[in-house]
Each structure stands twice: as structure tokens, then as C-alpha cells.
Amino acid sequence: MADPDSQKVMLVAPTDILPIVEEEDTKPPPFMPVNGFDSLDAMTPASKPPLGDRYFYVPSSMITDIIADERMGGPLFEWTVPKDIELDDMEEEVDKEEEAALTTVAGQLQYPWSPLEHIHPESPVILREDEPSSVIAFTLRSKQYQHALAALRADARLNVEVEKPICIDFDDITGDADGSQLKFSCQVFYAEEFEELRAACGIDKLYVESLARCFKYDTSGGRSGMLFLKTRDTRFMIKQLSRAERDALEHFAPMYLEHMSRAATTKLPTTLAKIFGFYTIKIKHSSTNKNTRLDLFVMEDLFFGKEDIKVFDLKGSERNRHVQSTGRRGEVFLDSNFVEYIYKSPLFLREHSKKMLRACVWNDTIFLSKQGVMDYSLLVGVDQKRQELVVGIVDFIRTFTWDKRLESFVKDTGLLGGGGKQPTIVKPKVYKRRFRNSMESYFLCVPDKHSPPL
Length: 454
Known about the structure:
CATH architecture of the largest domain: 2-Layer Sandwich
CATH superfamily of the largest domain: Phosphatidylinositol Phosphate Kinase II Beta
Order of helices and strands: EEHEEHHEEHHEEEHEEEEHEHEEHHE
Structural class: alpha+beta
Number of domains: 3
Strand content: 15-25%
CATH topology of the largest domain: Phosphatidylinositol Phosphate Kinase II Beta
Radius of gyration: 37 Å
């Protein structure tokens, strides 16, 4: 039986098949690890001949069935193809076997996308029919949008006034099994201005990533019949607009963006919730001719990252502003509920916090009143565990239009009752004054060590 150590490396005479190491070479040849050895130096001196000898190292695994015997009378590893075998036939047979194997494997694979998911070479984002925010994310990452935005910025540098929104249309090249296609479009309103606002807030990169996925969010404080969504990471909210609200926002957005820009550059205190985008999306199936249109805007979630907080929607009126608690998570309470709450557990603010809240409410109500806006709310989140209040003014899109005037008249005259309490809908200047007074009374100031002496 052969010595086990002798099986580690065999010395083979050089042939035309195996490369050899010439005497003038100064470096060892490429070497493949053999039985744990990863270099020539790791081998025993007895088994390592000088490089000048015309020998080549071959792992024993490569010559399992070959024995170095003098009786073989020929170079090792030499093999002649039999005359009755054609190489082309052999290669064709191998190709057929490989094709059959690939066909078997491919038959077991499933298409990775659902019928509601679509891909397009214009954008890396997957478009999902049941997630409207994905249409927005898809558009913002598309080449068409980037080119249109660059052209818009070039016009702005030339002082060319552009008021039309960027409109991007796509045809779904993936199609359905029956050959039908999905066509969709997305209008991006005030694209450059909202891009600048997102950049100023530091969310320009994560914005598209968040919008790629969303889910329906049910809230007791939401508007009946309107779609209300949240991104999967809960960072942003997407709200559907009625036609009247869409027209109002299209008119209101330039002033809002200017106000937010001024607040950022001059450090003007503001508590207006941030709107980060305004869009109209349309989806059409060629097979069913079903058309879907949604007017949407994206805003920050004031309570992102907050848990176990009690939320109130405050308008400064107690008329029809009370809800019964359902015990559901995320429910929103109103003014009368808040009055009951602070009666049992008053909310005391430090002097600095009180002054900051007062300044924010004052600045924002002046701005909203000038734009003819009313019926806005101060959304308040009470975090008892951390002893914090999170506040922001929301629902400030609707202006004092004829339908609101009619609602105000009906409530003013008491045709629908109301117990003598002030109506929710009043003229913008009246609403501003009432809103300020109510917020001043809802939150009490308590002196601390930094307060001036009385």
C-alpha cells in the first residue's frame, strides 16, 4: 500500500499538455491548494524539487485513474477521440441536455410580479395599482420627470414664468396575460417649489422611497368618502381632494410655499403642517376602459414615531364638537372632549413654550385670514409619558366659498339647532379671532425658575 504522504503531490514528467517551469523563471508557477497546502513553502522539503528541474506540480485529484507506469509508453493525460464519434454530434447532444434541464427548471419558476404590479424601463420604482402613492414615486424617479424638471429650472434662471404643471404619461410595456395594457399619467403641480421645500426639510431623498408603498388608513377624524393613506413607514400621509379642494389648493399653493419659504429663511415661528407635494394621477385599463382619477396631496405625519398619544382636533368651537370614545387606536377627539380632558388634567406650558405657541398661532392665522381660509384646526397630540405636546395647524386648504357661506348662514340663524353655541364655520376674520382666543384659553402657562419675578 502506498505511503499516505506520497499521495499529496505526484511528480509528473513534462509533456506537451502540461506547462513546465523553465529554468530562467524566477517566480513559482500558479499553484492550486492541495490537501490543505496553500503555497509551495508549506510543503515538506523532501517533496519540493528545485524550480530548475523540469517538473510540474499536479494535485493527485487530477490523476485519480492514471498511474505513472513505465509500461504505458506515452505522455500522461493524452486521449484520442475515437474515429466513430463526431465532435459536433457530442456538442449537439450536450446542448440538448442543457436545454432540457433549463426548460424543466424554468417551468417551475413563477412570475415575480402580481397582476397589480407593473414595471417600466423609465423608472426603477414598481407601480402598484392598489397603492396610489407608488404612481407618484414612479413618476418622480422617471427620466421624463427629471428632464422636465431640469427644463423648468432652466426657464426659471431665464426669468420665464411657467405656471403649467409637469404632466408625465406612461404606457405599461409589461401588459397583462390577455395582451391588455395599463396607461397612466401623473401631473406634478409646482414641482420646482415643492422640490425646494423638501430639500430645505431634509427629506428630498427619502421622500420617493417612502411613497413607493402605502396603505389605507382609517381615522375617526377623517373626511367621509375621501381616500386617506399613509406610507408604509408612516412618515407621510396622502389625502384625496374633492374637486373644490383641488381648485382651492391650486390657487392657494403659491402663497403657502412663499409663506413656508419665508418662515425657513427668516426663522419665522410657524406651526402650519408641511405639504410636500400636490398631484393628479390617472389610470386606465385598455381591456376594461376603466378610468381612475385621484387628486392627492402629500403632507407630513405630525405624530411620526410617536406612540400612545391622545389626539385632539381643535377648532375653537364646542358646537357639535364632541365624539364618544370607541377605544380604537388612533381615534381623534374634538373641542368638547378636550375641555373635559383639561378640566381633569390641565395642560400647563412653560413660559417659553407658551410664547412660542402664541407666536405660531398668531403668524399662521394672519396668513390664513389674508388668503380667505377658515375651518382649519390645531391638531394636538398629548404624550403623557414624555410630557410633551405635538401641535400643528391642519385642514387649511378650503377657502370661504359659497357653500361655506351657506353653511355659516344656516348655523348662524340656528335653523339646525346648536344650543346657542357658536357655529364652526364663520367668516375668515371672525374665525381667526375666535381661534386665537380659544387656543389661548386651552393651554395655561405656569411660571418656572426662568420666569421674571412678579
